[in-house]
Write a structure and sequence with these properties.
- By secondary structure, the protein is α+β, with helices and mostly antiparallel strands.
- The chain has 2 domains: 7-140, Fructose-1,6-Bisphosphatase, subunit A, domain 1 (Fructose-1,6-Bisphosphatase, Chain A, domain 1, 2-Layer Sandwich); 149-259, 3-Layer(aba) Sandwich (D-Maltodextrin-Binding Protein, domain 2), CATH 3.40.190.80.
- The chain has 8 helices and 14 strands.
- It has helices at 7-28, 46-62, 91-95, 164-176, 187-193, 207-210, 213-219, 246-259; strands at 35-37, 43-45, 67-70, 81-89, 102-109, 112-120, 125-130, 133-136, 139-140, 153-156, 179-182, 199-202, 223-225, 240-243.
- β1 and β2 (43-45) form a beta hairpin.
- The relative contact order is 0.13.
């Protein structure tokens, strides 16, 4: 049986995983590497595979009884403690030489995210969070105090992730926000945790895209749910509202409920 570990131990281990991911990613970034297309036509690179393989090795060595789920090597959530890995969130950015890609690692207990890591290798930026502690490069970070849509700085990865009624709802939100920026991938959630962005709203996501960001956003004072206001779990519907404050979050949920009736 594995010895009990403290939150400080997990934070240190997440920093180790971040260091490994950063080192590997930067050996490939803006260099020559092989790119393939997966069955969903999304790209995958040598770096994606190398990073996930290394992180799996480290987790299995430290916690041999824990289960691991990754974007590239698969797996399924099991009873007990699980780790969820997205080795490169933003592979399209990575391929294009854009430095906003990141590595995501989450530790789940009872199938819910408890610890999260957002590692942005090319910018040497890192967020770790759990409970009521969220850290950016080792210092405490907090979300903004924004409560009003007309003041909100909104981010999303790509406008093409929204379709049909979801696109119509997002357009209403975009027109209501102060500014909207695209192309942020997981970096947008880190910026939210540090108070630079007030809203991240997305759709068509998978478990490995989000499990790591939930503990960080919540620990920094924000709220993360699906568009209908439900907690994020392994069977979530692919939508997400991450907001700096509960009041701002509630306004977006209500807007979507009106614009996108169930």
């Amino acid at each position: 049986m594995e010895n009990p570990v403290s939150s400080n131990d997990i934070f240190q281990f997440l920093n180790q995983l971040g260091d490994e991911s950063r080192a590997l990613a930067m050996t490939y970034f803006r260099a020559r590497f092989h790119v393939e297309r997966k069955s969903d036509n999304s790209p995958v690179t040598d770096a994606d595979r190398a990073i996930e393989h290394r992180l799996r090795e480290l987790i299995a060595e430290r916690f041999p009884s824990h289960s691991i789920v990754g974007e590239e090597e698969g797996g399924s959530l099991a009873e007990g403690t699980n780790w969820v890995i997205d080795p490169i969130d933003g592979t399209k950015s990575f391929v294009a030489g854009i430095p906003l890609f990141g590595s995501l690692v989450a530790m789940l207990e009872a199938r819910l995210p408890k610890y999260g890591l957002i590692e942005i290798p090319a910018l040497s930026e890192r967020w770790i969070g759990s409970g009521d502690v969220a850290l950016f490069n080792g210092s405490v970070c907090r979300t903004s105090s924004c409560e009003h849509l007309h003041q909100a700085r909104l981010c999303a990865t790509d406008p093409h992730i929204f379709r049909d009624a979801a696109l119509e709802a997002f357009e209403i939100l975009r027109r209501s926000a102060s500014i909207t920026r695209f192309g942020t991938d997981c970096y947008g959630y880190g910026l939210l945790a540090s108070g630079h962005v007030d809203l991240v709203v997305e759709a068509d996501l998978e478990v490995y895209d989000l499990m790591a960001v939930v503990p960080i956003i919540e620990a920094s004072g924000g709220t993360v749910t699906t568009w209908s206001g439900e907690p994020l779990h392994e069977c979530f519907d692919g939508t997400v509202i991450a907001a700096a404050t509960t009041r701002l979050h509630a306004k977006v949920v209500e807007m979507f409920r009106t614009a996108r009736p169930q």
